[in-house]
Amino acid sequence: MVVIELEPEEATRPSSTAAEEREAARPSSPASPEEQEAEEEEKEEAFEDALTDEQLREGKHDKAIKECTKALELNPSYLKALLRRAEAHEKLEHYDEAIAG
């Protein structure tokens, strides 16, 4: 009889199946056009978010309002742009615009 001793790590690690190994080795498929478009929109929103955040910190409230308005024209459900625009209006004491959305 032959006894094989396993290292403690190997003994507790579950073995993978051949199908799992093939799946892991397979290159991922390219993203669909819809996924690519969604990823591009996320990048644009992140850039505009960083831009307006910087403008608000620097006191460029008018410019932040314009940038947020552009972002909302492209994506009306972009909540961060709506909130940042309201914050800029508030800093400029445009209270009616701040609550109007």
Automatic annotation (TrEMBL):
<dbReference type="Pfam" id="PF14559">
    <property type="entry name" value="TPR_19"/>
</dbReference>
<protein>
    <submittedName>
        <fullName>Uncharacterized protein</fullName>
    </submittedName>
</protein>
<feature type="compositionally biased region" description="Acidic residues">
    <location>
        <begin position="34"/>
        <end position="49"/>
    </location>
</feature>
<dbReference type="InterPro" id="IPR052769">
    <property type="entry name" value="TPR_domain_protein"/>
</dbReference>
<dbReference type="InterPro" id="IPR011990">
    <property type="entry name" value="TPR-like_helical_dom_sf"/>
</dbReference>
<feature type="region of interest" description="Disordered">
    <location>
        <begin position="1"/>
        <end position="49"/>
    </location>
</feature>
